Amino acid sequence: TIKKMAESEEEVDVLVQRVVKDINNAFKKNPNIDEIGLIPCPEARYNRSPIVLVENKLGVESWCVKFLLPYVHNKLLLFRQRKQWLDRDDQEYFYDVQPSQNISVAALIDITCTLLLLNPDFTTAWNVRKELVQCGALNPEKDLYLGKLALTKFPKSPETWIHRRWVLQRVLQECCPQGAGCKEQGEADRPAQAERLQRVLQEEMKVCSEAAGRYPSNYNAWSHRIWVLQHLAKGNIKILHDELSCVKYWVSMHVSDHSGFHYRQFLLKSLVGDPSIVLDKDTLSLAVSSPDEHCASLSKGEGVSVETQRTAVPDLFDEEMQLCTDLIESYPGHETLWCHRRHIFFLWHHWNKEHYRGCGQASVLKSSDGTLNNTLSETTGGKTAQDMDVDVVLDAGKQGYTQETKRLKRGPLQDCHGLPSEHRFIAKVLNDCRSTEQSRISMRCIGLLYHFDCH
After folding, report:
1. Residue 140 near residue 173, CB atoms below 8 Å
2. Partners of 372 in the β-ladder
3. Would you call 85 helix, strand, or coil by DSSP?
4. Are 208 and 310 a contacting pair, CB within 8 Å?
5. 381 — alpha (psi -120 to 50), left (phi > 0) or beta?
6. CA distances from 377 to 246, 277, 320, 418 (A)
7. 13-45 pLDDT, tens per residue?
8. Which residue in 262, 259, 200, 209 sits closest to 231, CA to CA?
9. Fewest CB atoms within 10 A around its CB: which of 84, 240, 242, 429?
């Protein structure tokens, strides 16, 4: 067997070099490999390659890892210790003082690729690939592809996520060059670069979703997804809204995943908390100033009135609270759902308080029995605002609008779950719940609501 053949160090080197070559040939044979994995195999039973390629799946028989990993690890460390460098005039080889120790760039890429597929948290290997990207010897997209494969086996690998952010920053700099000269030079390439950035953004969302599904509460994946939106989407409200809709199904299937619900909270805060972003539920237009808007193919829209925002944002909160209600009723006893519901109620409380008081108008949040929310209600001119009297006409002659026609056109604002209605919901859950755990979680939510009531 191969195991008996590999008794000497020289034979082990020959064996491992053959395996590294087989891995490289597998990628050449099928450039669409989308998953890697280890095949449980304590020892070599046949005199064949331990690399198995089935459709788009790449498998490595486990017996060879104990030979393969130390070899590529030591080979890389030897390269670093001897301080070989890349000749900028000849990007085919890294040169050493001793010509016999020269190593080709292709071989170094293969070594780091094999090492990172087996151990993606080896920082030195990622740093070597950074150098290869910086000198132009390695395409950034190929490096992202390697990280994607590593995450199929190690979905929580922190070093892999960190390296991806570095590569994405590199791609972002290439798509959005700084400086007047770069701006003029890149005018012709702007559509292509915007398309490239859009493609990278979509791929990152897919990678994050797959990693989150492979590892429960994968904080690293969700944090990376937030980072991508902050740096690549740059406040694109349509992308934020699409993400909110896309993740809705995912959290419904993972009701105990705190990280997924935290991501939804980030999306909601981004949609309603940024004063430079105005949400129009019908057009989802974007009114935000950004010097790099073209980089993410952002489409500017006309500014949306405060009146429109006040009707769209409550609907957004109402939909989220309804999602919480449906999930709690379907999956009793999951504390993650109650934590998310508390946070949404908290966001709604502060958004309503800030926006309605900022406009000098009264809150119309009313419970289903017509009782005004005692936490958020206000008075205008010493008179308590009524349900249908909240609309204030700033210009009575504008477009022939009157207070009555505006009110009839828009109708009253929806009930966005004030304290009385929230108390009734919790009371209903307490009456219907069959476990002490569900009762305990509900009582904690009541305690928080009383905190709102007192403040």
Report:
1. no
2. 366
3. strand
4. no
5. left
6. 34, 26, 22, 10
7. 888 889 999 999 999 999 999 999 999 988 877
8. 200
9. 242
Q: Are strands 35-39 and 57-61 parallel, antiparallel or unpaired?
A: parallel
The pair of three-digit structure tokens given for residue 265, joined into one six-digit string? 């909270």
Is residue 243 within 8 Å of 266, Cβ to Cβ?
no
Token readout for 248 is 């809705």
Strand locations in 96-190, DSSP E? Answer: 103-104
Task: Name the band, by pLDDT with cuts 50, 70 and 90, for residue 305.
Answer: very low
Q: Are 316 and 248 in contact (CB under 8 A)?
A: no
Query: 215-244 pLDDT, tens per residue?
Result: 999 999 999 999 999 999 887 888 999 999
User: Which position has the token pair 């993650």?
Assistant: 336
408 touches 357 (CB < 8 A): no
Element (H, E) at 384: strand 383-384
Query: E strand or H helix at 320, and its extent?
Result: helix 306-330
- Per the CB < 8 A criterion, the answer to whether 67 and 16 are in contact is yes
Q: How many beta carbons lie within 10 A of that of residue 153, not counting itself?
A: 17
CA dihedral 448, 450, 453, 455 (to 10 degrees): -60
Strand partners, 389: none
Amino acid at 100: S
User: For 110-144, b where at least 16 C-beta lie within 10 A, e where not — what string?
Assistant: bbbbbbbbbbbebeebbebbbebbeeebbebebbb
Cβ contact 55:91 at 8 Å: no
- On average, the pLDDT of the chain sits at 74
**Total residue count of the chain as it appears in this document:** 455
